[in-house]
Design brief:
Blueprint (H helix, E strand, L loop, with lengths): L1 H10 L17 H8 L7 H23 L11 H14 L8 H12 L3 H5 L1
Helix pairs in contact: 1-3, 2-4, 2-5, 3-4, 3-5, 4-5
Length: 120
């Protein structure tokens, strides 16, 4: 439980401007999904949203891995983590209102449970 609270505290600063500036706040699964699925382009808004998306997911995955909640395989990229999280959010729209760190946790634990914890 302490590690989940720490995860939430670590990710709290990752927030972008509100909808008025064309950005989505990735503090919930809805916001993270919107941020990460912005139409591709080379404009500054897309590039910033993509950076926020990848950074947010990478931070959560690194924290989950550090606290042994998941076992990620060597060689996995941030784009793969993004794909896993977006697939989870797309397939579970009823859970997108949860905080983003929790949504990322659910997505990653589903596919990469910690081997020692899975045996218990």
């Amino acid at each position: 439980m302490k590690s989940c609270v720490l995860l939430l505290l670590l990710l709290a600063p990752f927030a972008s401007a509100d909808d008025t500036g064309g950005y989505q706040n990735p503090d919930t699964g809805n916001g993270l999904y919107a941020t990460c699925t912005a139409p591709e382009s080379q404009n500054a808004v897309y590039l910033q949203q993509n950076a926020v998306c990848l950074s947010y997911i990478q931070g959560a995955v690194s924290t989950l891995n550090f606290f042994n909640h998941i076992d990620i395989e060597d060689g996995m990229t941030n784009e793969q983590f993004k794909d896993i999280v977006l697939k989870y959010l797309k397939e579970n729209p009823e859970q997108r209102h949860y905080a983003s760190p929790f949504s990322i946790f659910l997505a990653m634990v589903k596919d990469f449970p910690h081997k020692e914890k899975a045996k218990q």
